[in-house]
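Comment thread on ticket #2218

A.B. wrote:
> Attaching the input chain for the structure job we discussed in standup.
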Amino acid sequence: MANQLQGIAASKGIAIAKAFVLEQPDMTVEKTSVEDPAAESERFRSAVGKAKEELEEIKAKTLEEQGEENAEIFAAHLLVLDDPELLKAVESKISDEKINAESALKDVTDMFVTMFQEMDNEYMQERAADIQDVSKRVMLHLLGVENTSLAGIKDTSIVIAEDLTPSDTAQLNRDYTLGFATDIGGRTSHSAIMARSLELPAVVGTKEVTAQVKTGDLLIIDGIEGAVFVNPDSAVVEEYEKKQEGFLQQKEKWKQVVNESSITTDNHQVELAANIGTPDDLEGVLNNGAEGIGLYRTEFLYMGRNELPSEDEQFEAYKKVLTEMENKPVVIRTLDIGGDKDLPYLDLPEELNPFLGFRAIRLCLEETDMFKTQLRALLRASAFGNLKIMFPMVATIEEFREAKAIFDEEWRNLKEEGHEIAEKIELGIMVEIPSTAVAADLFADEVDFFSIGTNDLIQYTLAADRMSEKVSHLYQPYHPAILRLVKQVIDAAHEKGKWVGMCGEMAGEETAVPILLGLGLDEFSMSATSILPARTQVRGLAYEDVQPLANEVLNKKTSSEVEQFIKEQGLLNV
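C.D. wrote:
> Ran it. Output below, let me know if you need it in another format.
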């Protein structure tokens, strides 16, 4: 009987091959005193320079083989190596404490990584992984240790590792690497995101795969159910060979709907849109047949730099997205940054609970010059496409009114200056605070649309930090309270003739699609690679069938009951 491990399904697919266990180099660091701190700082700078050269090569290779979206990860890594805050902190530690560069680098990066990992924001948690990856590369040069490369794999293999950094994932030889499994990680880690874009089956967060597997073991990776089978018998292999064939047929079926409408069997149409972070994400969006952009996270324009982006710089970024989407709807979220995501050039206060603190719209309504610059750029770009603007973390109607007043003022100013601006730009809000969902009928009188941000709504409603291991089991998208709040928002909006989207992770989950469709959600916004599976699923459902099912789900008492019920109805793709 095969040894079965359970983890998180990070990238769909089935892989059957022998294991290649990635051995981690010995990076033990001992703190030692140095007599010449200036020479030690120079040794550190030399290691940084070598790391930069390597990253430039990896970035170029990734751009050629995988496209701009994945290459951008290494552009972000290069920015880390140019970050004066990080570099100066290491050199200051070497100088002040007269210690070796290895120890100074470890102390400083450990501090930054811990700070980012504790932030309640996926983007910032991914920055922690970036810093770990980059610091490891510099550390290897300081220690004189050769990094283990995955590029040399010459036999079909499934890679096993404690974790895979973006650099590791980028070097995978796609001719021979059929999938991977790791001890740690989640669906939003860079390695998982890259696996999905490379269409490699992946299971992460198994906790013990490196302890249970040795190089040469026969493995099955089930990236659909999140399972890893170690040395399975012939019956299990045969079963999964059939599943693998079925999945490959399903993928071909998904490709057939790239240019089709997202319409049910009884002619109820919805919109499947994509979430993006930069204009470079557009290639994947267009290749996967997105019907719009449901969330453009503009904070990426503000990160990895030492000053605020200018109006013209922002205008060009927004214009590019609107132009390339060819009048399809593009929802751009205003700056969602603050207490839990520090920017070095903004003097933000330290807070005991930054997740509920001075951030997003609260920050913008105080830093009005910064907010006006962004709104002016958005307004100017509106002439080039179908722009909709969304304000994040709105808790009160007064906040929306104040934001709208600033928007109206800049609209008038730009008109007087002679700029061409769209005559009608819809203004909406993210529904991510429970009080806003409860009062959706009141907001619906004033906003043009809602977009439900389930990532925060779930953890605020259930008082459960999804990054806390001890309470992560309480982060339940299918909890009856969450589904009832979603229904409340949709019903309130429709009663006032307004539309509702969802831009949280939940929108692209196949368990959620029939529920949300039945509840009446108008727009589903998700990662680009989720669009074709979701469209296939929608096109196989009847709206009149899922409406009563969605209502029945609202009366289930637990999250697991909801998931089991949907599974039993046979409404999933695979």
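A.B. wrote:
> Thanks. Noting for the ticket: The chain has three domains: 3-24+149-233, 37-143, 263-568.
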